[in-house]
Amino acid sequence: MRQMKKGSLVATSLLLSSSLLFAACSEKPAENAAAPSPAPAKSGEAAKPATPAGIDMKTVKANIRWVYPGTSESEKEFAEGFKQKMKEKYPNIDIEIMYMSWADMEKKVAVMVNSGDAPDIMALQDVSNWAKMDALEDLAPYLDRKESSLHKDTFNEATLKYATIDNKVYALPAASNAFSLIVNEKMLGDVGMKLEDLKTWDDVEKAAKLMTKDGKYGFGYPLGAARFAFRVPFTMGYSNDLVISDTSDASKQKYIELLNHLKNLEPYNPKAHVTWGYPEMHRAFANGEVGMIASGTFYSSNVYSINPDIIGVSRNIAYPKGPSGSKAKAPVSSSGYGLLKGSKNKEVAWKLLEEMYTPEQNSITAAIVNVTAVKTTSADEVMKKAEKIYPKAIEGHKRILADMTKMLNDNSVEMDKILGQPEMEPIVQDNIMKMLTNKSTPEEAYKNIKTEIDKIKAQYK
């Protein structure tokens, strides 16, 4: 875990952005389109600039499928709005938005790539597994083109670094994402506690216990979906100086402390939480049924359409310090879009990416979910758009943004890229499920997780 550079985060956190946009996948090559890609660079070398195809976007014909994991209403509205604007501007280009969850993307897109039916553009967070699969186009040559509207210095340095491996840029960062603890401040106050009282895991457990009464619960853990069953302890672990994939003997005690923390919180979760994914977790929080959830900078977009009033009583803080942790920490990454190496429409897809990252388009996405990775996006313009997106909760949304700025400045650490994470997620989920249903102890859960994660690591050596 590495502390984020404060200078770059201050610059980043002054702007607002969406953590999720969308992606696509092509059915047939564009007419009058793609120049061949350059030969791949050797590991550690930057690739030579790609040769521009010189396509005419007004006349070129192409079918673009865009894989998009956005689940909130505001994200879907943005996606459909972008599609419509591109159709008006480029009438011969058809965009199909393929809505699927992040978990489904990991499985379905991998099948498409392996079967020779690769998408053209795809939303990306951690690029490690996709790069290992050799599924992604290196975007460094495109960024090096003189005529390109996007260059490396267009993006916040820390977010671009997160999308880069061996000098190859596998995604263009659209947003900076942080995982954190969202607290219903009213529920907390009703049991005699304040936000500043949440300093340690013990404090979180105390608050959860006090808030669990009268049909309401203190915590909501989405254990029914592997991706999010993994993400919650992943988020907590940073505040105990632990990366959840670290199964070394030196981290054993920290790991067992993490599992015990989840075990201690279990009585303060609704029984249905074992079936929840992110939508159910955010819905329960939005309806005032749970008092705390591990979410992140994308929080507002997930609850506004359910209950805009909840944003006015919500606060966003780094997950409090664990017993072996040095301080409360918030892991920070980037999310954005990449081109698939197997795409038959790379030049058209690249032009669409350039459109997506214009200040006009990025300010819309920035207004949805919070911290932009694009330097040219205007904070004033973002706030104007946020007022239109969250008209019933704009003051609460502004306070959430202030919380995020403070958290990014004081508590951020670079999120680790975990090779093999998709395979690790169900292992963590299954063993935590057994532990929380009293079929194993935290020590037994740790032993099983360690054994299986070590096998996955060995496969990637």
From TrEMBL:
<keyword id="KW-1003">Cell membrane</keyword>
<keyword id="KW-0732">Signal</keyword>
<keyword id="KW-0564">Palmitate</keyword>
<dbReference type="Pfam" id="PF01547">
    <property type="entry name" value="SBP_bac_1"/>
</dbReference>
<keyword id="KW-0449">Lipoprotein</keyword>
<feature type="region of interest" description="Disordered">
    <location>
        <begin position="31"/>
        <end position="52"/>
    </location>
</feature>
<dbReference type="InterPro" id="IPR050490">
    <property type="entry name" value="Bact_solute-bd_prot1"/>
</dbReference>
<feature type="compositionally biased region" description="Low complexity">
    <location>
        <begin position="31"/>
        <end position="50"/>
    </location>
</feature>
<keyword id="KW-0472">Membrane</keyword>
<feature type="signal peptide">
    <location>
        <begin position="1"/>
        <end position="23"/>
    </location>
</feature>
<dbReference type="InterPro" id="IPR006059">
    <property type="entry name" value="SBP"/>
</dbReference>
<protein>
    <submittedName>
        <fullName>Extracellular solute-binding protein</fullName>
    </submittedName>
</protein>
